[in-house]
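#data-curation
PF: Archiving a pair of folding outputs for the training set. Convention for this channel: one message per protein, sequence first, structure tokens after, nothing in between. First:
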Amino acid sequence: MPRSKAYAIYYKSSLSHARRYADAYQQQLVHQYGLAQVELLASSPDRNKDIALLQDWLSRNADAEHRECLVIGGDGSVNIVAQCAATMEFEISVIPCGTGNDFAAGLGIGDWRWRLQSEGELSRRDLGKAGDCYFVNHAGCGISVALQQLQSPRAKQVFGRYSYLLALFRYLFTRPSQRCKIARNGTDRKAGFDEFQVAAISRRIGGGIVVYPQADTQRQQIGFLRLPQRARWRQLNALYWILRQQPERSASIDFTEATQGSLGDQHATIELDGDTTSLQGPVNIEIIVGGLAVRRLIHHKNKGVSL
């Protein structure tokens, strides 16, 4: 006989409050559904190890009618779970508990207790695909990778989401020779260079920075944003409009929408949802419509939900 429900809680082990949240949810799920066990899966510094851990849980519960993973962490944690959810059907509930919680914000989730109070409703969310990997918010290269290197763990802890903005200001005042340089068409370096390229399926990237304000659940498009090499004052102009949540108004930013495209050049490291990966450009980018089964807060009278 198939087992009716299988639950796992994947949590960011480097955050002490994430473990407390995980314990609270474990007790709630055991009590609510009368389960013998709800597995706690602690994250590690090794991304591939965590993916293998999730795959093992899924394979051991392959006969369950309902499989759900609660993700207690930030966008990077959601991204790791999405690598499995893209190819193995199960539901995700996101409990915001990280530096960047843009995916949770797009679902209208701000309180870590929400899933203790309600199952919410099931929705399908689009996924982005970069090469053989997946992203839930964005894939980027250039400045977005540099920002990871300019943020210390301590800065993330102290400043939270604002650590991204502080890192961005630091980048803008680095020497031109030390700035990012990405061939515009991926191979022909004579075509000019960008300092930043991003493919987004939601409004925000790290720390709530808006790059794709038009994104919603009915659009089914990818927003491609490119920032060419420019003088510092023009980059500050681009930053001004990004902070105003209107990047399309900056003459320094190239923006297009499509269902597929390319990102990076052969020298570019690709980051996914704010975490640097081993993926190198150029990579093909595409959208997988409804590729993720996610539980969200119940919203009434919503027809086009902002991502």
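PF: Second:
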Amino acid sequence: MNKKEVLQAAIVLIIAIFLFKALIPFITGSEKAFIVLSGSMTPLMLPGDIIVVKSVDLNDLTVGDILTFQDPGGKPNTYVTHRIITLKEDKELIFKTKGDANNAEDNFNVTASKAVGQMVFVIPFVGYLPKIAKNKNIFFLMVILPASLIVIGEIWNIILYSSPQHARKIERKRKKTTTKAFYEVKGKKLTALILINGLIFTGIITQNLGENGPVILNKENNIENSGFLSMIYVFTPDDPKQTLSIDHWYGVIPQNNETQVIAPENTPAKLNTVPYILPVFWILELTKINPYLPVAAEIVVYASIFTLILLPIWYRKSTIGGRRKRIRFYRMFAQWKRTFRFVNL
């Protein structure tokens, strides 16, 4: 195996290991996926998103965690995902929950026997795919039509090759026109595109950042978004127990708008603001790790996406046969120029 084949095999192996590790929890049942149907937890998760729920030791859950549980009304195959606001232990753990978008807490208690697990990840908009697949027109365009074209193409090939004489003629033509193809990464162009896209999105994102850093919250606090993109804000109090006492401790502000946040007087906290171009859940989780990570993640994600969109510029297919034809053309062109000069003389 040459270096290129070794590299390709290594990439395939890494992807296979990643997919295997990602799918194992779903196969074993330790993780489950649910489609979000309502807006009670917006903007953290939106209708049409898919959430990943992990089976955990309920004793490890704390106030502020997001719990998925069976519908309290007893509807089969129906689940609710809300944030834990209080918990107490009686004969079993009892949770009090509330949707982030709801003004009041839930009017029921959630017992441990009804709990399914903790919500640990959000995949945006993927939940719409099953609904889209049920649309007859979309199903025809995306599945039936391409499959029909493939079948027609195969039938046509069978017809062409049904005659041995005709088949030999086609093969002779193919051998004459066969070219050895290989793909080449244009390293300089790729590096230039990464740098350009990185600079562009760094400028866009930094221009749309709001106030960031330590703050002392008053009873009423106004947060302004003067950028041209919607903005996510996150308050992280120095005392994590005060998080849910800030109304609302995170949210989305439309462009050229402002919102008011109510908090206990003189609450020390850190404020983070970033453009709303990644899911809110991702931003909150990255903020927990490091307040600068959301900005870095947005730059990297969008610079990478646009670099991939421009794939034809830095990743090209070359053919040896095609190169020979170009060389032959250049030779003919040079000969024609020499002849033309001779005639003019």
